[in-house]
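Model it.
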Amino acid sequence: MLKNFLNAYIEFWIKATDIKGITSLSDWWFVQLANLIISLLTIPIFLKTFGFNVYGIVCIIPQISIDIRRLRDFGKDWKWIFINLIPFIGWILWFIWLGLGKTGKGKNKFI
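Modeled.
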C-alpha cells in the first residue's frame, strides 16, 4: 500500500500537465492524502517564512490536472471544475464526483 501511495504521488508530479490521461480513484485519494499531510507539516514553516503556503501554490497546476482527469473519468466535461466556486454545495458535489465516483466509465473510456 505504501508503494501505491508513493507511486500515485510521483505520478501526480509527472503528469502535472496531462489532462487527457486517466487517474484511478485510489490514486486520486492517495494524492489528496499526501497533499494534506505535506500541507499540515509545511504550513507552519511557510507561514512564518513567507506568510503564505508555498506548497499549496506549487500544487495548483498538478491538482487541476488530476481533477480534470477524474472529472473526465466520471463523465463530466472539464468545465465542471468551476463548481468548486460554489461554497459547500459545490465542494460536496466535487468530493462525491471525484472521490466516490465511478472509474474509467466516463469520457476517458476510449482514450
